Amino acid sequence: MASRTDIRPVVKLKSTAGTGYTYVTRKNRRNDPDRLVLRKYDPVLRRHVDFREER
What we know:
Elements: H1 4-7, E1 10-15, E2 22-26, E3 37-42, E4 47-54
Antiparallel strand pairs: 1-2, 1-4, 3-4
């Protein structure tokens, strides 16, 4: 049986605005096999921007 870290790996989400701010989260590989893109709050810019998964 697959371990928990194989199905839900830890990924870093980096701001596309170039501020260098990152979030750390887990993702489900079965539901999101591609790179994850989430719209989250960037406290450096004080607004919501896209955060992309980096490996």
